[in-house]
Amino acid sequence: MLNARDLPSLVYCYLAGADPQNPYASPLYGDVSGLPPVLIQVGSDEILRDDAVRMAEKLKIQNAESRLEIWPRMPHVFQLFVPMLPEARQAIAHIGQFVAEVRSALT
How many angstroms separate the CA atoms of 74 and 67, rounded? Predict the structure, then answer.
C-alpha cells in the first residue's frame, strides 16, 4: 500500500518543515514513561514495521504489559479491511482482549 519510493514526498508533506525528531511527529522520540500498557499491531509487510518494533521495545522498557503483534503478510492499517480480511477481524478482537486484560488488572 505504501511504496518506499514515495516516502520522501510523504515525509515532506507530513512534516511540513517540522523537525522529524519532534515527538509530535514521531513518538519514537517522546517520553513514554507514565503511559499505560500499549498494544501495537503491525503487518509483517508494513513499510513502518521497523518503527513499530522500535517503539514497542521502547514501551516495553517502561511498561512490561505493553505488547507487539506482528501479523504475517498484512499491509499498513490492515484492520480497516474488516469486510475482506479475516485477520482484520481477529486483530480487532485482540484489541478488545488487550483492553479487557488491562482493565481487569486495574480492578
Answer: 18
**Cα–Cα–Cα angle for 31, 34, 38, nearest 5°?**
85
> pLDDT tens for residues 19-58?
999 999 999 999 999 999 999 999 998 888 999 999 999 9
Return the higher-pLDDT residue of 33 and 3.
33
* Full residue range of the structural domain in which residue 88 is found: 32-106
pTM for this entry: 0.89
Among 71, 68, 59, 67, CA closest to 32? 59
In a domain, residue 16? The reply is no
In a domain, 8, yes or no: no
State the cell numbers at 99. Answer: 483492553
Q: What is the rounded distance in angstroms from the CA atom of residue 20 to the CA atom of residue 17?
A: 8
